[in-house]
């Protein structure tokens, strides 16, 4: 009787171990299927250790949290393509940050404590970077090496109190694939002729500026599809003239 009971107990232990191992495998398999993680407004000042079990993440949002330090373990998430860091208190990034070579989209808007003078000159180290958003950091012109950002297609530089728009457009034009630019909330009164340097431009967002009209040189942008002028004191007759000259472009005002 005792021998039989012993065999039964060993069998139950074996079954229990097998089930536990299967559950571990199932949990690991499940984690491998997760490619997006939205932790915006859900953290305090620290990223949970459990995040780094999700090694196949492609999109990570940790915006709007009181994070003052960049967790270096994020570089272990080597498959990341999109990283939203806006409205955090991160001050700088370690050199390892720039080894995330699969990054395609990066949002650094409203990072008031970030050392932009140190960070921006290094952004070209992301070879696949296609979308970059900055804003609310009060720079006349960002110190970015646009000529080395060969895949950059979309750039946002918003809510700057003082903006050297002419110099900025000259710099952006060095990124030859630029198709979309966001320049809302920059107190722009006149759009300089340098806008025509952006020969591949398709979308131009000028929302909430001080523009009354646009230069007719805009007609040289043959790929332009959409111009947003909402919340600008535009002269509608002048914009309608541009609409007639550019029938393929949509003007929103």
Distinct helical segment count = 4
Question: From the helix content, strand content and strand pairing, which structural class follows?
Answer: alpha/beta
- Spatially, the strands of the biggest sheet line up as 1-2-3-4-5-6-7-8-9-10
How many discrete structural domains? 2
- Please, what is the CATH homologous superfamily of the largest domain? Ribonuclease Inhibitor
Write down the secondary-structure element order.
HEEEEHEEHEEEHE
Unreliable parts: 2-22
Mean pLDDT: 90
Strand content: 5-15%
Major pleated sheet: 10 strands, parallel
Overall shape: it is elongated
**Strand runs, count:** 10
Radius of gyration: 25 Å
CATH level 1 class label of the largest domain: Alpha Beta
Straight-line distance between termini: 89 Å
CATH topology of the largest domain: Leucine-rich repeat, LRR (right-handed beta-alpha superhelix)
Which CATH-level-2 architecture of the largest domain? Alpha-Beta Horseshoe
What is the share of helical residues? 10-25%
InterPro entries: Leu-rich_rpt, Leu-rich_rpt_typical-subtyp, LRR_dom_sf, LRR_domain-containing
Protein name: Leucine-rich repeat domain-containing protein
Signal peptide: 1-20
GO cellular component, one term: cytoplasm
Structure overview:
- The chain is of the alpha/beta class and 253 residues long.
- It has two domains: 34-129, Alpha-Beta Horseshoe (Leucine-rich repeat, LRR (right-handed beta-alpha superhelix)); 149-163 and 175-252, Alpha-Beta Horseshoe (Leucine-rich repeat, LRR (right-handed beta-alpha superhelix)), CATH 3.80.10.10.
- The chain is 21% helix and 13% strand.
- The protein contains four helices and ten strands.
- The chain has helices at 2-33, 116-119, 165-172, 236-245; strands at residues 36-38, 59-61, 82-84, 105-107, 131-135, 154-158, 180-182, 203-205, 226-228, 250-252.
- A ten-stranded parallel sheet has the order 1-2-3-4-5-6-7-8-9-10, with no helix packed on it.
- The longest helix is centred in the N-terminal third of the chain and has 32 residues, at 2-33.
- The model is unreliable at 2-22 (pLDDT under 50).
